[in-house]
């Protein structure tokens, strides 16, 4: 709003452009990380389904929640697309550009900007530890230097934005208001909803726990590939984004922030598909490897979500409601 008047037309155009950037970033990430293109396509439709169709019938006015898509989705989706580029060709310029850019995201929206920045800092520290061939003491020193630079950049970005706001409005910003929503919820209980014990939120939690175990195993055994690194990225980011559901534990909030779990499922499913040889598909006689059973369930869940998306797009409202009442 520094550059555009806050009219309905300008805001609608801005949100449409940001939403397009978010979805293109997710598409780029999914098709870069998932090798099996059929699984990648199912994953994208599954993400679209959770974001826009699981809670309402699009394009009803309530189908698009601007407070999440694109506002809370923007920086996490850009982070995923950034890592797709950076991990293939890391450079110092990309490193500092990312720290500066995603530091701005912490002021764009605290709910997702802070987990996004923390994920970036932790993953970059992990990469420094894995790539360094120096002694353990020097590795620790490099990581400490990285952390100091990261949070110094964060402080500088906040200071620069504060000065810009002062120039624009003639008043210094009160940064406490960035945390007003969180304080209202967690300190005073405003709009809080408890978590039900036996509900669908257990699925993404289980996915993140599996991702955490695999990420630790990859770290201990130094198995650094694009997919393995993304298991760590999506686990960290997904856990951070899950806090949006904790404050107001309505099932629709989990759908909005659950896309990281779906992309993790896609990676697990891709690993499952990789356990087959081409001749196995022709003969329909699969030769399971040791991890095939572990990764078969994610493929089934992903397939179900994809089917639900296709069903939502192709049938009428009443039939969709009956399907949702019975199965969801």
- Uncertain stretches of 5 or more adjacent residues: 277-296, 313-328
The helix/strand order is HHHHHHHHHHHHHH
Biggest β-sheet: count, sense, barrel? none
Rg value? 21 Å
Principal-axis shape equals globular
> Which class do the helix and strand fractions yield?
mainly alpha
CA-CA gap between termini: 40 Å
Strand content: under 5%
Round the mean pLDDT to the nearest integer and report it: 79
| Percent in helix | over 70%
In terms of quaternary structure, what is this?
A: single chain
β-strand number: 0
List keywords for this structure.
328 residues, mainly alpha, 14 helices
Topology:
Elements: H1 8-33, H2 37-53, H3 74-86, H4 92-108, H5 110-131, H6 136-169, H7 180-186, H8 202-220, H9 226-247, H10 251-257, H11 259-273, H12 278-283, H13 292-314, H14 317-327
